[in-house]
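Backbone shapes recur. Consider a single case.
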Amino acid sequence: MADPTDLQAAAGILAAHRLRPGAFPGLPETLRPADLAGARRLQDAVHERLSADLGPRTGWKIGCTTPVMQRFLGIPEPCEGGIFQANIQMSPGRFPAAAHHRIGVECEIAVRIGRDLPPGEPDRAALEAAVEAVLPAIEVVDDRYADFAALGAPTLLADDFFQAGCVLGPPVTDWRGLDLAALSGRMLVDGAEAGSGHGRDVLGHPLNALAWLAGTLARRGRSLKTGEIVLLGSLVQTQWLAPGARVAIEIEALGRAEMEA
């Protein structure tokens, strides 16, 4: 999809659907991104459109971090999506199920970036030095599609890979003595445990996911910026919620975040 007119038409469709989610059947065939590079160009255009309604993009999420999901969707790598200012809440949060098509939640370790990273792909030391705080987080996702598996990974990437928002727990600034890979986490839905995992379930180490994102952004001519929040990937399987469900996630040494659907 090299035609700028087609790019803007596709971005308009995806942005409008994000603001009024339903069972999206997919883009017209002539407007679908053919590959991940085209998907990222379309994602940029979608972000520009959405910023008028949701405020600036103030962070990123990383999805599809497990081989199982990558095989399922037929992609060789994780996928990134934007997070917008209007969709970031501090715990306790509320994302009404009625405002979404099929709301779900994930248990995440998040980071807050404390300094701009320079252009180019950063080394691991520079990346870790830029992390100001680590936070427990709930990613809110929305299966806003008639059949997401039929859409293909490029369209899902352009639409920020199910992203709908997040709820952040308290920031932990003295995190450098923690073994993030070894931290355990769990999710509770209406008081019952719905899943558990460890930091190592995210690409072997949560900061491996951050390094992947930094490298991907560098190849897009971008870099992580001061104040941005990055959700590094879920420690548990996505849980789909009934209206009114109460969710809590607890991550060892980081704390707890809560929300209501």
The chain has a mean pLDDT of 94. Helices lie at 4-19, 36-54, 67-73, 124-130, 148-151, 153-158, 206-219. The CA atoms of residues 59 and 228 lie 5 Å apart. The longest strand covers residues 131-142.
